[in-house]
Amino acid sequence: MKNLILLVILLNVSLFIPPIANAGIIDTDSESFIDTQSGLEWMDFGINNIDSYNFVSSNLGSGQKYNGWRVASSEDVTNLLINAFFGFGNTETGNVGGWDIVTHAYNNNSTGSNIEHIFDFMGFNRAVFSSNLFSHNLSRGLFETSSGGLRELILADYPNTLNADIVGISTIPISKLHFKSSDYLGFSTMLIKKVPEPSTVILFMITLFFLLIKKNRSFIYKYE
């Protein structure tokens, strides 16, 4: 009976695992957020920006600080922007004023812009204090291009009603040499990892259940 109750508990816990097929961005308790369309977990902004790109990208192996993560590609970041922000604001693509892809979403008086909740899930690198009109939370993230270079994702969260919240990919390439030859901080390195399929987790839980049964039977036989 105890084993049956345990199985029910484990299967119910599995229901709280974010489904991969559902659209949206969800927060986690692990300083990360999940894009449920791509099935990728992204490290929050404001976590690894204490380290340079050079340090982060060279510490992704087993036993190292960022073990289990990898640096995001242009395709990964483009898909994130499409999945997270398209439909919420005024989105433009192509070389638009120095942006490859850019979304503007204007604030209202009570709740901020309609992408405010997405920014909340993603975190931010630093608060920029200026006049009341221009103070904002700024995030800048580095990702790798197919040619081996770096590009920059920028998120600017303005709390007032006169400026639009902005998220976009800059068209300006960034030299890796700059980040390899200095410890320039303030940029997050955009790190991702694949979220386990729910079916895999459920299978693991069922396997764990039967192992517990086997262990309990061994214990009973030993002391009969």
Describe the structure.
The protein is an alpha+beta fold and 224 residues long. It has one domain (18-195). The chain is 30% helix and 27% strand. It contains six helices and twelve strands. The protein has helices at residues 2-14, 53-57, 74-85, 116-122, 176-180, 198-223; strands at 25-27, 32-35, 40-43, 70-71, 90-96, 99-106, 126-128, 136-144, 150-157, 164-170, 188-189, 191-194. Strands 5, 6, 7, 8, 9, 10 and 11 form a seven-stranded mixed sheet that branches. A hairpin with a 6-residue loop joins strand 9 and strand 10 (164-170).
Distance between the termini: 19 Å
Helical run tally: 6
Main beta-sheet strand count, sense and barrel state: 7 strands, mixed
Helix and strand element order: HEEEHEHEEHEEEEHEEH
Helical amount among residues, as a percent range? 25-40%
Summed over residues and divided by their number, the pLDDT gives a mean of 74
Spans of at least 5 consecutive residues with low confidence: 4-11, 13-23, 217-224
The radius of gyration over CA amounts to 22 Å
Oligomer: single chain
Beta-strand content estimate: 25-35%
Number of strands: 12
Q: Structural class given helices, strands, pairing?
A: alpha+beta
Domain unit count? 1
Shape: globular
